[in-house]
């Protein structure tokens, strides 16, 4: 890799960015990375995606024409198994060598890590090869202790930090990050999603209604159980309402939660009114079939893409007032916000948006989301951050 080249030479050739992700399954962060990679093509940046091969993320990136490299990154999750914990230092050592060699071989100009753990694996490459290292914080407070420790360590190595919401910026500050090293860049709706939405027919959800959907992995923090608890009150006013849980189980350790959801769905008065659709690749078609989209999360929502996408498609939305959701939804104008875990408030807000006021919410939401969450804006802002890092790196080499 060549560093210290002139600014003119840098502008002439395509820069290569390593998008480093610790997970291989397809979730919200992974969709953000795909959107970014597509947008960066128009900004003179080529993407190389490095992530574990397990899960559907790498396959979807391959389909999008993104260069991918299966990478042995350990997720470094909290464990009570001492044998697993003792392997973590060795994983960091071998993984760090892998990332360094990958960056040298692929002539990487910027490393963009999407979790503090990614920085831990990339720090050796950044230090030995002189590559700028960017940390993208997708999380919000309160953070788990191990995440906080990883973030504190990562902030010592990262040259710059992107937070996708004000809540994310606050998390960085709580871990000791300087305000001048953090920039807020809101996520964007993928162009492919908008194209799909224009041509897709609404999914066939059958009779009944209103149809109320939750999009996301089936896990406790997403609050699907809160929606089912609120469903009883909604059914008192809309006897044919149907509640859709659209998304697969996150990990095997969430199986007990998923089982509880299925058990609740079989009890009166919910029996016959709850549908588990599993993972659906055509999210736009399913959103178009919904009369309202709900995000009943109880924790850890930074800037949820499902909410932004639903608004773009002119779906009335209800969301927990948590993390970055107030930066997306203007309560009483483009949708409704409720306290997380408040079953009564959630039910009342759903009844509001599926009622006569729903059309107004939907129209205002679509106009607002299309203006604020475009992929061109997203890629342009991040490309500008890359350019600043490269210029600073060049001056440092001189």
UniProtKB/TrEMBL annotation:
InterPro entries membership: Glyco_trans_4-like_N
Pfam family, one: Glyco_trans_1_4
Keyword annotations of the record: Glycosyltransferase, Transferase
GO MF entries: glycosyltransferase activity
Domain Glycosyltransferase subfamily 4-like N-terminal: 27-190
Protein known as: Glycosyltransferase family 4 protein
């Amino acid at each position: 890799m060549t560093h210290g080249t002139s600014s003119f030479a840098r502008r002439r050739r395509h820069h290569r960015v390593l998008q480093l992700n610790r997970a291989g399954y397809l979730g919200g962060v992974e969709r953000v990375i795909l959107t970014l990679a597509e947008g960066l093509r128009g900004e003179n940046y080529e993407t190389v995606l490095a992530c574990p091969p397990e899960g559907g993320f790498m396959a979807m990136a391959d389909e999008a024409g993104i260069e991918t490299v299966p990478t042995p990154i350990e997720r470094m999750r909290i464990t009570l198994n001492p044998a697993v914990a003792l392997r973590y230092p060795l994983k960091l050592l071998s993984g760090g060598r892998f990332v360094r060699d990958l960056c040298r071989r692929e002539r990487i100009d910027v490393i963009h890590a999407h979790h503090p753990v990614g920085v831990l694996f990339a720090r050796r490459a950044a230090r030995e090869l002189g590559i700028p290292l960017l940390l993208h914080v997708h999380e919000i407070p309160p953070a788990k202790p191990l995440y906080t420790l990883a973030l504190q360590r990562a902030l010592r190595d990262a040259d710059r930090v992107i937070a996708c919401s004000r809540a994310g910026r606050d998390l960085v500050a709580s871990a000791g990050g300087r305000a001048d090293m953090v920039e807020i860049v809101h996520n964007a709706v993928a162009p492919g999603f908008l194209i799909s939405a224009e041509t897709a027919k609404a999914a066939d959800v059958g009779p009944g209604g209103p149809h109320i959907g939750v999009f996301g992995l089936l896990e406790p923090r997403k609050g699907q159980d809160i929606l089912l608890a609120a469903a009883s009150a909604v059914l008192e006013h809309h006897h044919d309402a149907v509640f859709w849980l659209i998304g697969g189980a996150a990990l095997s350790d969430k199986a007990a939660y998923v089982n509880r959801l299925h058990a609740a769905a079989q009890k009166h008065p919910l029996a016959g009114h709850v549908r588990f659709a599993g993972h659906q690749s055509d999210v736009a078609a399913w959103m178009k079939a919904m009369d309202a989209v709900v995000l009943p999360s109880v924790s850890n929502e930074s800037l949820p893409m499902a909410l932004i996408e639903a608004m773009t498609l002119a779906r009335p939305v209800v969301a927990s007032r948590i993390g970055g959701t107030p930066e997306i939804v203007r309560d009483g104008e483009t949708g409704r916000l409720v306290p997380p875990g408040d079953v009564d408030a959630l039910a009342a807000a759903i009844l509001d948006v599926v009622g006569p006021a729903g059309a107004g919410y939907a129209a205002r939401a679509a106009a607002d989301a299309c203006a604020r969450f475009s992929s061109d804006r997203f890629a342009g802002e991040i490309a500008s951050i890359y350019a600043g890092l490269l210029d600073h790196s060049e001056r440092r080499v001189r």
